[in-house]
Design brief:
The chain has 4 helices and 28 strands. By secondary structure, the chain is α+β, with helices and mostly antiparallel strands.
Length: 398
């Protein structure tokens, strides 16, 4: 009985860590480049990216039922219609599925391109090519597999997958993009789709692999104590998934995930994070220029600090770790160290007397360059661009 109980407990633990892994798709896929579009019509400059947070599925009807037997011509017509008649930058659909279950790549570039949808916060839009409300069994299987794939990659759960109706809500002037509005639908198609979606295996966490590569790293190899060294480098997206930094920042962090003694207070994001990339999408193969400073506020000597990259939530990027090695030189400056106090820190005052206004605090053990001294008071730069005075009672001259 004890052995059986132990086996059951082990199985429960294993079950808790089971990861949903999608099977190899069974549907036939047609690449966009095989559809023969005139790519000169689409606008790559109009592409906007955001981390996909929902899957929207809509029915696409043809002008006549005869087109259902020639889906590629139908898609070609949609491509020209959306761009030349409605003023879109491209097809709004990420994927299209025909009645035979064939899946066609729609909009160019990567998943996460936000089509001209109002309030699209990152959506994958799937269109079902059919004039009838029913969904064929072949199409149902393909939609099931397609939704499962997208859910697995981005962690999109059932409540963020829905059937919608689309309508042009804003057709703008020439040279500007029109907008699509989507609304939930309770049509027969939605009822059919609900049955399909109930059989999908969803993932509640993303399963993406982000890779980085660092090049052209530069920094001062020698820096005077109390000074700063500037670190510059290029960070390349070395994987095959865009970095959606509009809502999923890429952070530069210490490799140890611990506070750095070289952090620049008020400039670094935190004491273990010098800076981050946000507000842009870095596509595979693209690079961004990154720059931050490190403060040389410690004893003269040789030092190093290693850095890596992580995403929102602390998920590390593969590769890209680099090291900064430098020497702190004392030169002819006077150094002081803040000794132990009753509170662990020391008040910094506006003027060199105990009645002066407290403008800040410094920690015991911190080292500073003396800018001026007066009657056993020492003037220091206690934070970037801010000077103040500390009393000599808690000072050790170095």
């Amino acid at each position: 009985m004890k052995i059986l109980t132990k086996i059951v407990n082990i199985l429960l633990v294993v079950a808790a860590f089971v990861v949903v892994v999608p099977q190899v798709p069974g549907y036939q896929a047609v690449k966009r480049e095989d559809l023969g579009f005139d790519e000169g019509l689409s606008s790559k400059d109009a592409a906007l990216y955001a981390f996909p947070g929902k899957i929207l599925i809509t029915q696409v009807e043809a002008p006549n039922t005869a087109m259902e037997s020639d889906p590629e011509s139908w898609i070609d017509l949609l491509y020209y219609y959306y761009i030349t008649r409605l003023g879109f930058g491209d097809l709004p659909y990420t994927y299209l599925v025909d009645k035979s279950g064939t899946v066609y790549e729609g909009r160019s570039n990567y998943e996460g391109v936000v089509p001209e949808l109002l309030d699209a916060e990152g959506a994958v839009l799937i269109g079902y090519l059919s004039n009838g409300a029913d969904v064929t069994s072949a199409a149902a299987d393909s939609i099931n597999e397609l939704v499962e794939e997208v859910s697995y990659k981005y962690g999109i759960t059932r409540e963020n997958v829905e059937a919608v109706d689309l309508e042009v809500s804003q057709q703008t002037a020439e040279g500007e993009l029109s907008k699509l509005e989507y609304k939930s639908t309770d049509s027969m198609f939605a009822d059919e789709l609900d049955q399909i979606l109930s059989k999908v295996t969803y993932s509640d966490r993303e399963n993406l692999s982000f890779k980085a590569a660092v090049s052209e790293v530069s920094f001062e190899e020698k820096v005077p104590i109390g000074g700063k060294l500037t670190v510059k480098f290029k960070l390349k997206n070395d994987g095959d998934t865009p970095w959606f930094t509009l809502n999923d920042f890429v952070y530069v962090v210490t490799s140890s995930n611990e506070d750095s003694q070289f952090a620049v207070n008020g400039e670094w994001d935190s004491f273990d994070t010098p800076t981050h990339v946000e507000g842009k999408t870095v596509l595979p193969g693209e690079s961004v220029d990154i720059e931050f400073q490190m403060a040389a506020n410690t004893m003269p000597g040789e030092y190093s600090e290693s850095f890596k990259f992580s995403r929102t939530g602390g998920k590390d990027l593969q590769g890209g770790e680099f090291e900064v090695k430098f020497t702190i030189e004392q030169g002819d400056v006077q150094l002081i160290e803040i000794t132990e106090t009753e509170t662990g820190n020391l008040n910094v005052r506006k003027d060199p007397n105990l009645g002066a206004q407290v403008v800040g605090q410094v920690d015991s053990g911190a080292i500073f360059v003396v800018k001026e001294s007066q009657n056993n008071w020492y003037k220091i730069e206690y934070e970037p661009g801010a000077d103040g005075w500390v009393i000599g009672r808690y000072i050790k001259r170095l």
